[in-house]
Write a structure and sequence with these properties.
By secondary structure, the protein is an alpha+beta fold. Helix content is 37%, strand content 9%. The chain contains 8 helices and 6 strands; from the N terminus they run ααβααββαβββααα. The strands form 2 sheets. It has a 4-stranded antiparallel sheet with strand order 2-3-1-6, with helices on one face. Strands 4-5 form a two-stranded antiparallel ribbon. Strand 4 and strand 5 form a beta hairpin. The C terminus is likely disordered.
């Protein structure tokens, strides 16, 4: 009996250890970069396992965005012509809105992240996180066999659902010295106006549902609170929309230091 109990404790300890190192550099079985980023520079030649999810909230559209830096034509001197940044940003936001509206038909979209990286395994990758796994599954099915701008869409579920661990903090601070070949996500930003236009619909919908649930019966309670506060409740700025839902997984800068083992 003591031998059996000791064996069980040993098995539990080993299971806890494996769970604690899963997807980290100490994991010699599973690829940490695929686990964090949903992509690996070694591809199918990687010595570690890529555990491809059969269901996920996130969908990856591989190399879908055509980065103008990569596709810039050559000038008379044989070097790529300098990209007009304002024009490139406008074209990018047109692409972003086009993709978002297509995806929003399948359910609530929480994040759309487009990689600004230049390495082959990450260039133009588009990560979409839905609120619900079933919505993501519908979108994935709809993208099968489709084309965008004359190129086939390669879609798959992604293991990445928390983009805080997959994004490059140095890029956010404009201090990444690896440039476009960094192995962490350089998420291309969009304007505040476009973000409000696309993601603001969900905030409005949430407010509408909240009002429906209250059924107009909450006014007396609010007035009572105002009286208790001596009439000072009107000065409270309850905007509700002050949260900056950036969708890029880059709002939490207090995350653990990323390793530069890239």
């Amino acid at each position: 009996w003591q031998t059996g109990a000791a064996k069980q404790r040993q098995q539990n300890t080993m299971a806890d250890h494996l769970a604690s190192i899963f997807g980290t550099e100490k994991d010699r079985v599973n690829c940490p970069f695929y686990f964090k980023i949903g992509s690996c520079r070694h591809g199918d030649r990687c010595s570690r396992m890529h555990n491809r999810p059969t269901i996920s909230q996130s969908v990856l559209l591989q190399n879908m965005y055509q980065n103008p830096v990569i596709n810039a034509p050559l000038g008379p001197d044989g070097f790529p012509i300098k990209v007009d940044e304002r024009k490139a940003q406008q074209e990018f936001e047109d692409f972003y809105e086009d993709v978002f509206e297509e995806l929003a038909a399948f359910g609530e979209v929480e994040n759309v992240n487009v990689c600004d990286n230049l390495a082959d395994h990450m260039v133009g990758n588009v990560y979409i996180k839905f609120k619900d796994e079933n919505e993501a599954a519908k979108a994935l099915q709809a993208f099968q066999g489709r084309y965008y701008n004359g190129r086939p869409i390669i879609a798959e579920f992604s293991p990445v659902t928390d983009f805080r661990e997959s994004t490059c903090r140095q890029y956010e601070e404009n201090t990444c010295n690896r440039g476009g070949y960094c192995n962490f996500m350089h998420i291309k930003p969009i304007s505040k106006d476009l973000r409000k236009k696309l993601f603001g619909r969900y905030k409005n919908r949430s407010r509408s549902r909240s009002r429906d649930k209250k059924g107009g019966g909450g006014g007396g309670r609010d007035r009572s609170r105002s009286r208790d506060r001596g009439g000072g409740g009107g000065g409270r700025d309850n905007r509700g929309g002050g949260r900056d839902d950036r969708g890029g997984g880059r709002d939490d800068r207090g995350r653990p230091q990323q390793r530069d083992d890239r």
